[in-house]
């Protein structure tokens, strides 16, 4: 029992990194022209009462229907990891203090670069060694809990093509009524947070309701699942899904609601 208690106390202490906050934001976009460079820093604040040691490293990042996946830095087609210089790999953040993780973005002067490139800086707690045995020789149970934060670093090199695709439409019926779901994919070259909404029209063509879906960040080649709750009846109604990236082009798709597959 004593060994388990010591292990649990060690596990609670190792969660001190939960008091680390990223003051500079979890999504950091910058505009850097080919051949130019930009200097910035990630700001980490320790709101706790203990010093915390953190390790910083880069990974490539992708999203498939909103689920993140990570890869070796510099391997994704639109990775900017090779452009980022981040000297500080391990740092200690003191209680009540802010620590900076400086980095430099150097975009190569190459033809054909356009649109957005990105990676993620993972900031992970460096755990101390857990005690291997108790004083009375009982078996030690080791419980490791590691805190990790991710800061998405986006480099906009210049204007790129815009493109979105709406697919896999369906209506899911639950306790709160019908929900229009679909996959929204970014088929263009720019990382954007487009406004997503659906205008629902009745059989007579009159607007029945407008449902907002927020402004999700969407990277080129990535996709998310959008869920829009409906109050209008499905029969005879049509939804016009609108994707507005805030540029001159607005993308849309008309969907007959009563012709969609249903789920529960």
Structural features, described:
- The chain contains one helix and 18 strands.
- The two termini are 46 Å apart.
- With 264 residues, it is mainly beta.
- It folds into two domains: 2-158, Immunoglobulin-like (Sandwich); 164-263, Immunoglobulin-like (Sandwich), CATH 2.60.40.10.
- The strands form four sheets. Strands 2, 4, 5, 7, 9 and 10 form a six-stranded mixed sheet that branches. A four-stranded antiparallel sheet has the order 1-3-8-6, with no helix packed on it.
- The protein has one helix at residues 2-14; strands spanning 20-22, 27-31, 37-46, 52-64, 67-71, 84-85, 90-93, 98-106, 115-125, 148-158, 164-174, 177-186, 195-201, 207-212, 223-229, 238-244, 251-256, 262-263.
- Helix content is 5%, strand content 49%.
N-to-C order of helices and strands:
HEEEEEEEEEEEEEEEEEE
Main beta sheet, described?
6 strands, mixed
Helix content: under 10%
Determine the strand fraction and express it as a percent band. over 45%
CATH topology of the largest domain: Immunoglobulin-like
- Distance from first to last alpha carbon: 46 Å
Give the second-level CATH assignment, the architecture of the largest domain. Sandwich
Q: How many domains?
A: 2
CATH class of the largest domain, anyone?
Mainly Beta
Structural class: mainly beta
């Amino acid at each position: 029992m004593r060994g388990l208690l010591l292990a649990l106390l060690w596990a609670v202490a190792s969660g001190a990194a939960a008091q680390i906050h990223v003051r500079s934001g979890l999504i950091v976009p910058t505009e850097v022209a080919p051949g130019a460079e930009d200097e910035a820093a990630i700001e980490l604040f320790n709101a706790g009462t203990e010093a915390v040691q953190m390790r910083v490293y880069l990974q490539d990042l992708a999203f498939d229907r909103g689920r993140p996946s990570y890869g070796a830095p510099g391997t994704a087609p639109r990775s900017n990891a090779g452009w980022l210089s981040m000297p500080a790999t391990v740092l200690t953040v003191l209680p009540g203090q802010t620590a900076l993780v400086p980095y430099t973005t150097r975009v190569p002067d190459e033809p054909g670069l356009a649109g957005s490139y990105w990676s993620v800086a993972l900031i992970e707690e460096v755990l101390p060694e857990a005690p291997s045995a108790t004083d009375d020789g009982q078996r030690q149970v080791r419980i490791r809990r590691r805190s990790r934060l991710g800061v998405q670093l986006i480099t906009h090199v210049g204007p790129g093509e815009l493109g979105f695709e709406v697919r896999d439409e369906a209506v899911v019926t639950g306790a709160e009524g019908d929900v229009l779901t679909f996959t929204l994919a970014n088929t263009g070259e720019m990382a954007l947070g487009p406004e997503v909404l659906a205008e629902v029209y009745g059989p007579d063509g009159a607007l029945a309701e407008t449902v907002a879906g927020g402004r999700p960040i969407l990277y080129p080649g990535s996709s998310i699942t959008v869920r829009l709750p409906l109050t209008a009846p499905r029969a005879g109604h049509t939804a016009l899904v609108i994707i507005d990236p805030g540029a001159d082009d607005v993308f849309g798709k008309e969907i007959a609601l009563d012709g969609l597959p249903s789920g529960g």
